[in-house]
Amino acid sequence: MLSWLQQPVNFREVLSDEAFEPAHAEYYSGPPGKPLKLLLQARTDFLSIWRATDYAEKVSQIRILGRQVVLVNSPELIRQVVVKRHENFERKSPQMRRALEYLLGDGLFISDGETWKQRRGLVADIVHMNRVPSFGPIMEKTAGELVERWAGIPEGQTLNVLHEMAGLTAEIISRSVFGNQLGEDSANAVTDSFTSYQSLIDSINLGYFIGFDEGLPVLRTPSLRRSVKRLHRIIDKVVEDHLAGRGDHNSMVELLIRRQQRSPELKLDVVALRNEAATIFMAGHETTAATLTWAWYLLSRAPWVERAVHAELDRVCGGRAPTIDDVPRLEWCKAVIEESLRLYPPVPILARQNKQADTIGDIDVAPGSLILIVPWLLHRTPSLFTAPHEFRPERFMGGKRPTPYSYIPFASGPRVCPGLHFGLTEAVLCLAILAQRFRVRVAETHKVEPMCRLTLRPRGGLPVTLERRAA
Ligand code: HEM
């Protein structure tokens, strides 16, 4: 509906012998001063609405149906929003809250105020960097199982590597959160329900733009209800099993329950425990799956980088499979993941709603406005990154780091992703384990189109073939 109003999106990809500019939408060139048209365009594809002039260090604003929308794209002002004035900007956008409330209830991802403060420490402790090594064996074993499965696939057969990576990271987070007892059917049901939930919700809450500060509730269609009910039933059963002492002792649900038993003032009942478990599950797998998928695409088109990755794996690991202890020495693998996160941040938009009136740069912001920080734009701003559209993992090597607050794939400030170390370690390790044994090939003729829903993925997935490397 209304698609006739939208500008068709053209994608650009440029490959030469030693340089690669991976796929991105051409700059928007629709007529200026048509915010409603822009909103409709954003509804289909949020990444196709940016003009060349938006890729600059600045703060700007537009009005959409009377609603003030402020775009913050300068490191210093981003620091102001996410750190210095965090309390005023900690609230997620009505769009995000409404889209996820049915699924996650008051889970950390969308809570704010006192609930967020109380729960943040709890969840952050559970996925803290000190705990990451204890999940190493799960990551190694699960990636190892995928190596076995891939080894049985005939060369030349096409796979959707987005689907493969989603299965891998869902299995890792499922075993980490719920323990090993979930069982294959329930694990698949959990993953399917999350996927179908995402596809059923709208990407823009029009209610907010027509005057409802809190947005409007998402329409709970029968299929949406079915996926949520199925998911809640499975997670509740895991929580109840753990409460009855029948759970896996190393799982994150077990850690949540132990924390509740030590601090009963947190008042975590079964529903609260479910909400936090579902939050960690949701936040902790799609993002990593998208990161790995983009990394395969980039490596496939830049064989000079792929060669460096393979040389590093041969040097560091010899013939044995990489383990979590190797991660600190896998500098190329880490740089490929960091560069993938720059070019294709899995969460390409951080949207907030300010509580009180405020000022950002020279813009006065009315209460309840929409504040957008767009890592997609920031990470491709030429004054912050040389040749910003090009794939150059070297920019993260030899101790080089981007300007503070110019590189924020995990957000920043008090609401920074608590799973940062888990996610980075998992992505580097899975890339290393799979790249040691396979080259993942995207057909030269395949047109890759980045698409933004809740996360940034290639439209229609990423069809690939596998080539074995000598073990
Ligand atoms: C490459 C992987 C990942 C990326 C790029 C990523 C990115 C992000 C970003 C950008 C946010 C903030 C969103 C916003 O402010 O609107 C976030 C929040 C969050 N992430 Fe991650 N994440 C990743 C992996 C993980 C993992 C593995 C876990 C858990 C094990 C996790 C758990 C969470 C949670 C619970 C929040 C909500 C935090 C809060 O609101 O206080 N993430 N993530």
TrEMBL record:
SUPFAM superfamilies: Cytochrome P450. Keywords: Heme, Iron, Metal-binding, Monooxygenase, Oxidoreductase. InterPro entries: Cyt_P450, Cyt_P450_E_grp-I, Cyt_P450_sf, Cytochrome_P450_Monoox. The keyword Iron applies. PANTHER family: BIFUNCTIONAL ALBAFLAVENONE MONOOXYGENASE_TERPENE SYNTHASE, CYTOCHROME P450 FAMILY 4. Belongs to the cytochrome P450 family. This is Cytochrome P450. It comes from Shinella pollutisoli.
